[in-house]
Amino acid sequence: MSKFEEVCQAYQKSRRRFLDYEDTCRQFARSLVDGIINYFDWPHSQEITYIPLGEKINPNDRFYALAGAMRMDDESFWHFGVELTAEEPGGSNPIPFLMSFFIKKIGPHFIVKLGPKGKEIRIHEAKQGKQDELVPFYDVVFHQIVQFFAKDYQDAVTHQKMEPGFIILTGEIE
Q1: Using 50, 70 and 90 to split pLDDT, how confident is the model at 57?
Q2: Quick check: 169 and 96 in contact, CB under 8 A?
Q3: Residue 174: inside a domain, yes or no?
Q4: Number of domains in the chain
């Protein structure tokens, strides 16, 4: 085998490890979002949209699969947005909001941040797909959403909030 072939083989192995890592993080992210949706009893009739963070999105072309929405940042976190819609009872006054998740895997743990400056939450890989064991995490997400609407909604509506956190409004306010 030539030195060139050895370099190409080393590259191939390294690239495969990276793609496997990306797939592992994507599977965890999908499981985490599915768990949140199930835990919240979010209506199946409502669309759940994955959105890449920090990119200008064409409103006519904004439907991404999770794999298409995930990007890696400078700190090696995979990040993506999940857009859901809240509404008043009876379905009136719907408002889409975007939650931003940051995920990476270190050893046997996934590190999750809720928003770019969120506190790092460690989740052991053995809990992946085990929704009952992730209830404390889902509770944190739930409380963040409720807290947003209770305290930050007015700032978000008037666009006074300058830095995006875990949750931002993405639709027009009626």
Answers
A1: low
A2: yes
A3: no
A4: 1
